[in-house]
Amino acid sequence: MSFLANLGEQVPSEFLIDSISCLPCKVLNIILEKLPLFDAVRTCVLAKGWRYKWLMLSKLFLDYELISDDTKDLKWDMIFFVTNNYLLNHTGTIKTFYLRTLCWPHYPELYQWLLYLSKLDLEVLLLEELGSQPFEMPSYMFRFKKLRSLFLGNCTLRIPSTIGSFSTLFELSLRDVSINDNDLHHLLLRCPLLVKLTLLRIHGLDHLRIHSPSLTMLEIDTRIEDVVIESFACLVLVCIKNSFRYPGMVRSWRSVICCLSGLDSLQRLVLYGEFITILAADCALENFPLRNDTLICLSLCDVRFETIEVLRIEAAKGPKRITTYLKEWDVL
């Protein structure tokens, strides 16, 4: 445009219109959400009218590992500045809050953010401490009324006796979390619509009890000693992973087999390394949940065949063989 002006030619009127700034707020929000957060923040220098555009975002994604600055303190300063400004000056609704960071020793700031967010209609919450010091989830964490997805990493959970219901929660993922048997059972009972449950590297959990009639997907690891699924009408996918931090095998794996063998709706079963090794050593796969006509895919992952002498899988006694049902068979 400046080139045409220097030539003394009239600048077309369409060039004078800032077509992006004139877009509806919802469209601008979609565009900015496609950018990495810090790039979205940088749009504030484009023009005066763009100074607060990034504060309209309904989703906040902050990942410590994606910040290019190598200095730990500067990374935290950037996260603190962006998060504080976003929460204090945000216009509109906040639907998603995603934070993966080295937060310690700044947990008081984190707790203040959580307290503020607990008063909003947040739908997705992800919190993960990347350092070695876990944070303790405050009690007002359980005030969220419209959460649909909750992801927690490297924290301690104590469930208050007065906990309300997560009546809209569909997905719960806990990784490197400390919680005892009773507290987890109490929490799950307060999630009546739970569809997907992930429990990996859980400290203090030995006996897993699940009463979730809507549950369709379950992912656990070999750290858990015992599994009891009291209601499994919809459970179609089960994944049992290795527990790399705890090399010990499942101590009472027969109860796990017994539990899985009763899953009448199971369609996909994914098993990992050590669990397969123990099962093969005792020929326990012969009695695994392959006897129903619902299982269509069996995946064996991270299998160390040098540790397995015989791997035999058979259907239950009867005229039908396992190949009648299985459509997929993977060894990865």
Structural class: alpha/beta
Helix content: 10-25%
Radius of gyration: 25 Å
Largest sheet: 12 strands, parallel
Number of H/I helices: 8
Distance between the termini: 58 Å
- If you average the pLDDT, what whole number results? 76
Task: Write down how many β-strands occur, each being a DSSP E stretch of 2 or more residues.
Answer: 14
Low-confidence stretches: 1-5, 245-250, 314-325
General form = elongated
Keywords:
twelve-stranded parallel beta sheet; disordered N terminus; 23% helix; 332 residues; alpha/beta; elongated
Describe this structure in words.
There is one protein chain. The chain is of the alpha/beta class. It has one domain. It is 23% helix and 23% strand. The protein has 8 helices and 14 strands. It has helices at 2-6, 25-33, 37-42, 72-89, 107-117, 181-189, 253-261, 273-281, and strands at residues 59-63, 96-101, 124-129, 135-136, 149-156, 171-178, 196-200, 207-211, 217-221, 226-231, 237-241, 268-272, 297-301, 328-331. The strands form 2 sheets. Strands 1, 2, 3, 4, 5, 6, 7, 9, 11, 12, 13 and 14 form a 12-stranded parallel β-sheet that branches.
